[in-house]
From TrEMBL:
This is ER membrane protein complex subunit 6. Its main location: endoplasmic reticulum. Belongs to the EMC6 family. One of its GO terms (cellular component) is EMC complex. The lineage of its organism: Eukaryota, Metazoa, Chordata, Craniata, Vertebrata.
Length: 79
């Protein structure tokens, strides 16, 4: 998932604290924008509204992000 991939990226890059959380939100927004651009003018054919694109799964994905972020940060920068 995108949360796991962005968490792994943040861990490998060595992001800590607020920088890591900002990276997650930027990655989520970027994915949402790319989905809307890919759907084009027919976005309502694929989605009921645009709001769930930007907010759906944000909190649920956060836990996966933190798991991969801390694991890979520890593996690359601590050990």
């Amino acid at each position: 998932s995108v949360s796991a991939l962005s968490g792994a990226t943040a861990g490998i890059l060595g992001l800590t604290g607020l920088h890591g959380f900002v990276f997650y939100f930027l990655a989520s927004v970027l994915l949402s924008v790319l989905l809307v651009l890919k759907a084009g003018r027919r976005w309502n054919k694929y989605f009921k509204s645009r709001r769930p694109l930007f907010t759906g799964g944000l909190v649920g994905g956060l836990f996966t992000y933190v798991l991969f972020w801390t694991f890979l940060y520890g593996m690359v920068h601590v050990y």
